[in-house]
Amino acid sequence: YSTWQRTLTRREKDAQMKRFCKAQAIQRRLEEIEVTFRELEQQGIKLEKSLREEGGTPANQKTQWMNQLLYLVQKKNSLMSEESDLMIAVQELKLEEQQWQLDQKLRTYMNKEESLKTPEDRVAEQEILEQLLEMVNKRNVLIHMQEEKRLSEL
């Protein structure tokens, strides 16, 4: 039993560490996206000023600036889509963590001998099961959102 419990504890810690590392990576990427947004905004402002101020500029130069501006808009839209995906991943990680915590609480009740459980223990156990079900449904909604987003992008 103790070997089984140690293995289970180790796996839980590994899963928790993976969630933590994933959350850190997502946070770093969100910060990078924010910096890139600012850079794109500055480039866009410069291009827009160039387009407005240069009345006597050759048509091919204006076309080139417009193409650059459209590229910036496309890049910004791509980053916004990635940011949206990352925010969904953050929500999913939060739900995973909450589910893990609920699992821990449920295990304490389930490991308790049935004859030693009080009516309050049984009610608490049932509430945790309902919360777990709600958590699973929320995660399912996130998965459907991701799938719909993926299909709409195709």
Condensed summary:
It contains three helices and no strands.
What does this structure look like?
- With 154 residues, the protein is an all-alpha fold.
- The protein has one domain.
- The protein has 3 helices and no strands.
- It is elongated, with a radius of gyration of 25 Å.
- The chain starts with a helix and ends with a helix.
- It comes from Brachypteracias leptosomus (short-legged ground-roller).
- This is MICA1 monooxygenase.
- GO terms for molecular function: monooxygenase activity.
- It is found in: Membrane.
Record keyword descriptors for this entry:
single chain, 154 residues, mainly alpha, 3 helices, MICA1 monooxygenase
How would the blueprint of this fold be written?
Blueprint: H1 2-53, H2 59-111, H3 119-153
Pfam family, one: bMERB_dom
GO molecular function: monooxygenase activity
Domain BMERB: 13-154
Q: What would you report as the Rg, rounded to the nearest angstrom? A: 25 Å
- Poorly predicted ranges (pLDDT <50, ≥5 residues)? none
- Counting DSSP E segments of at least 2 residues, the number of strands comes to 0
The biggest sheet, with number of strands, parallel, antiparallel or mixed sense and barrel status, is: none
Number of helices: 3
Quick check: average pLDDT? 90
Strand content: under 5%
User: How helix-rich are the residues, as a percent range?
Assistant: over 70%
Judging from the principal axes of the Cα atoms, what is the shape? Answer: elongated
- Alpha-carbon distance between the termini? 50 Å
User: How many structural domains does the protein architecture include?
Assistant: 1
